[in-house]
Write a structure and sequence with these properties.
The protein is mainly alpha-helical. It is 75% helix and 0% strand. The chain contains three helices and no strands. The chain starts with a helix and ends in a 5-residue tail after the last helix. The model has no long low-confidence stretch (mean pLDDT 85).
């Protein structure tokens, strides 16, 4: 268990130290990231729309009130 904690601490230290990145991001990369995010939100919204009846039925059964 001690070795595991040591490995976790050392890996956190290694990953938290900033390193120099020699990279170039061109202007079209930003628009591509925005398109990916919009497509992901659209897919999530469509999935919820398609399965809305099942979601509603599941939560209706789960949180059913008894009088």
């Amino acid at each position: 268990m001690k070795k595991f904690k040591l490995i976790i601490v050392l890996s956190l230290i290694i990953f938290s130290v900033p390193q120099t990145a020699h990279a170039y991001i061109d202007p079209s990369t930003g628009s591509m990231v925005i398109q990916i995010l919009l497509a992901a939100f659209a897919a999530i919204g469509y999935t919820i729309k398609v399965y809305w009846g099942k979601i509603k039925a599941f939560f209706g059964k789960t949180f059913k009130r008894t009088k």
